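A reminder before we start the practical. When you read a complex entry, don't treat the lines as separate problems. The point of joint prediction is that each chain is placed relative to the others, so the output describes one connected object in space. Small molecules and nucleic acid strands, if listed, are placed in the same frame. In the example below there are two entries. Take a minute to note the order of the lines before looking further.
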Amino acid sequence: MQTPVSDQVTTGPIEGSTKTYVATESGLSVPMRRIALSNGDHFDVYDTSGPYTDPDVEINVHNGLYPLRRGWSSEHRTQLAWARDGVITREMEFVAVREGVSAEFVRSEVAAGRAVIPVNRNHPEAEPMIIGKNFLVKVNANLGNSAVTSSVEEEVEKMVWATRWGADTVMDLSTGKRIHETREWILRNSPVPIGTVPIYQALEKVDGEPEKLSWELYRDTVIEQCEQGVDYMTVHAGVLLRYVPLTARRVTGIVSRGGSIMAAWCLAHHRESFLYTHFSELCEILRSYDVTFSLGDGLRPGSVADANDRAQFAELETLGELTHIAREHGVQVMIEGPGHVPMHKIKENVELEERLCGEAPFYTLGPLTTDIAPAYDHITSAIGAAEIGRHGTAMLCYVTPKEHLGLPNRDDVKTGVITYKIAAHAADLAKGHPRAQERDDELSKARFEFRWIDQFNLSLDPDTARAYHDETLPAEPAKTAHFCSMCGPKFCSMRITQDVRRYAEEHGLSTVDAIEAGMQAKSEEFAERGNQVYLPVVE
Amino acid sequence: MQTPVSDQVTTGPIEGSTKTYVATESGLSVPMRRIALSNGDHFDVYDTSGPYTDPDVEINVHNGLYPLRRGWSSEHRTQLAWARDGVITREMEFVAVREGVSAEFVRSEVAAGRAVIPVNRNHPEAEPMIIGKNFLVKVNANLGNSAVTSSVEEEVEKMVWATRWGADTVMDLSTGKRIHETREWILRNSPVPIGTVPIYQALEKVDGEPEKLSWELYRDTVIEQCEQGVDYMTVHAGVLLRYVPLTARRVTGIVSRGGSIMAAWCLAHHRESFLYTHFSELCEILRSYDVTFSLGDGLRPGSVADANDRAQFAELETLGELTHIAREHGVQVMIEGPGHVPMHKIKENVELEERLCGEAPFYTLGPLTTDIAPAYDHITSAIGAAEIGRHGTAMLCYVTPKEHLGLPNRDDVKTGVITYKIAAHAADLAKGHPRAQERDDELSKARFEFRWIDQFNLSLDPDTARAYHDETLPAEPAKTAHFCSMCGPKFCSMRITQDVRRYAEEHGLSTVDAIEAGMQAKSEEFAERGNQVYLPVVE
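Here is the predicted structure of the whole assembly.
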C-alpha cells in the first residue's frame, strides 16, 4: 500500500487504523491507534508513531514537531526525584494511560528505580514512555548513517519509519562530520526518546584516535548532547583497566565499539577509565537535564562461546556499583546487556543484573541464541529476546537481517522492528500483562469468524498479511469468504466447532457435561444438515 | 547463485561445500556435507540432502533414487523389536555415525521407545535418521499441492528443495485426484522419511463427506500407503466422542483438519472413533511394514487462548494410552503436539507428554507464541519451537511465512526450513549436544579472523549471507579485508582484542593475572604502534 510522503517522510495512518486521543483528568491527550472492526466495534493499541500518522497534523521536518511537553515543569528535577517526593508528574500520568495502569503505580516503580521515563527537558517533542519490567516490554531501533550515506532527511525518515512500525525509542549511532546536525534534525522531529553513545562523537573530535580522548573533551560532548535534548546516553564506564585482560582468551574478544574505545584508552595510558574516575561529575550533568544513564556493556560476549564469562560479569558488577552512585545523585539508570547467549544461559543474566543493579531496567541487544545464521540474526536473536524479555528485561534492542553483514535498508529496519514487536509481545503474554492477550484474542476471533480484513488490520503488519493472502486469493470477495485460501471453499472448517458451540448456546447449556448429554440430539441435527463438514486450516 | 537443474529438480552442492561419505566397519557409507575452510581445514556437518548434492550421482526423477536399504533385512521386524532383542541394525549403525554417538546408545534409546527410526521396509531409498530427545532436534517440512497446483515434478522439486536446506523428514499432505501418483513420485525420489495423514486420502475416496468414512475404507487406504513406502503416519485416534464438546467454548475450536474430520464422523454417527476402536488392528498393519505412528493431536489449540485446555490434555491422555498399546505390538510411536502456546505454558506440554506417553518422541507444530503476527508466523513459532525443543521435543514441524494466509512458494519453504534449523540448533545448544557448539565456534572464529567466505560457507544459508554482504561491499577483495562492511576500514576492530591475545600468547602467560602484570609493557607497545585502534562491529 502506498503512503503519502511529506518532506520525504512517511505520513498517514497504518492500514485500517485511525489516530485517536484519550483525554486525562488534567487535560493531557494521550495518542492511541484505533483499529476499526467490521462488526462496528474497535480495538485501541499502544501508539509509538507520533503525529506522523495523524492526517490532521501538518508535518514539516524543517519546523520539527510541536513541543508537547514545553512548560510541563519549570523546575530542573528528575522524574526519579519527583517520584521519591511522592509527586505524580504529567509524564507519569501520560505513561499511565498508555500502559493502562494507575499513575501512582507508575510513580512507585520510578521511585524504586525499577522503571525509567527517559525525557530530557530539552526534548519537549517526545511523548513520555516508560521502561521497566512491570510495564509493556519496549523495543529500540538503532539508526545511524555510515559517514558516506544519506541526506539528513533520509535519517529523519528512518526514524519515522521505525516508530511507525512500533519502535519505542531510537538510538542515533551516526558517525562522521554532520553528526551534530543529523542529531538535531532527528531530535526536533522525534516523538520517541532518542539515545546516543557520546563517545562516538568525542572520538570524531580527536580524529578517531582513542588515546587522545580526555575527560574534558568527553564532558563537553555530553553537555553538547544534553543541551540538544538527547534522552538517554550509553556510557561504558564499567570497562575497567583490570578487566581488559579477561578478554584475552575469548573466541571473539571485545565486540562493543564503545568498549573497545575505552579498552584502547586504558591500555594506551595504562590508567583507569576517565568515565569511571569522573562518574560523579557525569551524574551531576545528566541530573540537571534529566538524561537517563544507559550503562553500556562494553565487554559483552560476541559469540555464544563467550557468554556469561568472567569479563562480562566482572563489568556487570561494576555497573551495579555505578547504578547506586547514579541513584544517589537522583539520576535514572538502565543497564545494557548482551549480545550472544545460548538459551540455557539467558535467565542467569537477568537474575544477576537485577541483584547487582537493584532491579534497574535491563536493556539487551537480542541476545542471539546461535552464531550460525548470519542473514537471519533478527530470528536467532528474537528467540533470545523473547526468552530474556519474559524473565524481566524491560527493553529489547532490535537486530536486523543485515547484522554482521552490512547496513540495514528500509525493509531491514521494518523487518527488525516487527520481529522485535513479536518478541516483546510474546514476553508480555508470558508475564501475564493484563492488556497483552486481548489483542491475540481479538485477532483469533476474527480468524475463526473469517473476518479476513479484521485479521489483517489487527496484525502487526496489515500490509504484508494482506499481500500474502492476495497472492493466493486476490479477489476482493475472498476477503469475506467463509473459507481459507489454503484449503479452498470445500475444504474449510472451524464450521464444525461453530456448530458445536451454537448448539451449546442455543440450549443454554452451562456445563460441558450438559453439552455432552445433548450429543445424541446434536448428531441427529447434524445428519439432517446432510452431514456437511468442512476441513480446517492447519494440519 | 544458480544451481544446475536436472529434470526440474535442484542438484549440485551447496555453495562452499562438497559431498563426502564416512565408511563404517560393516561397510556402510554415511553421507556428510564437508565445508572447506580457507585455512586448509574443513568442517563436516549433518547432511539431509541425499544424492542430489553429489555431482557424481546422476539424477533422474523418473527412475528414482538408488534403493540404499534394499536387502538390509529380510525379516519383517521393526527397529523397536530388534532393539529390544539387543540387535544393532544397519539403520542404527548408520544413524550413530550421523549423530556422533555409539550404535549401542542408539539401540538402547530405540528399545526404550525414547527414539524412533521411521523406515518403512518399502522405502529403501531413504537414508536412516533418528528422532528422539537425546539426539539432534529434527525439522519436518510439510508439502502438498492444493488440488489445482503443480505438476508432479514440481512436487518432487519441493521435497528436494526442502531437504537441500535441512528438512529431516517431509510430510506429503497432498489432496485431490492425483494423490497416489504424487506420493509415489515423492517416495521414489526422497532421501528422507515421508509422513502422511491417511485420513485425507480416505476422505477423497468418499467425496469429502466424513460420515461416509468407515474402518474398512480407512484400513485399505493405510495398507495402500504402507505398500508404497510411507515411513510414518499421522493418526488422530485420540479424538474421542466425549471430547468434542470440550471444544465448545474455545476461541478457535478445532483447527486440526484430521481432528475435525473425526469429530464430524463421531457426531454424525454418535459413535466412538473407528480409529480408537480398531487401534489394535491398525497396530498390526503398521508393524508388518515398520511404519511409525505419529499420534495426531486433533484437538490442539488454534490460539494462545485455547492452549493447555481440558480438550487438549484429555486427548493427550488418550494418546498415552494408545502409545502403550502400540508398543505392546512392537510399533514405533511419536506424539504430535501444539500449535499455539504462550511461552509460559510450553514446558508443561513437554512434561505432560513425557509422563503420559512414556517419553515417546514429541513432535510439535511450532508452537506459535502469539497470534498477532500473520505473515511472520515462522518467527512467532520459531520462538516457541526453540523453547519446546530445549525442553525435550524431538522434532519440530516448520511453519512458513504464509501460515494462515496462503500456500507457501519456493522461497517460503526455504525460509521456513532455515528458520526451523535455527530453532532446532538453538535447542541443541541449550541441551548441550556435544557437536552443536562446534559449528558456532567455527563460524565465530571465522568472523573474528575476518575470514568472510568461511563465515558465509559455515552459515545455514551461504547464498543469502554473501548476497547481503555484497549489497554493501560487492568487491571481491572485501571478502578478505580485515574490517567489517558496517564500519569501514578505519572503524573496525576486534584488532584490539587480537593485540591483547597476541601479547598473552607471546609471553606464554598462563593466567589472566599474569597477563595483567604485563599491562604496563602492553601499553608501551600499544603507544609505539601509534595507538592505532579500530572500532568493532556491534553496538
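Discuss with your neighbour: Chain B touches chain A through 141 residues (CB under 8 Å). What might explain this?
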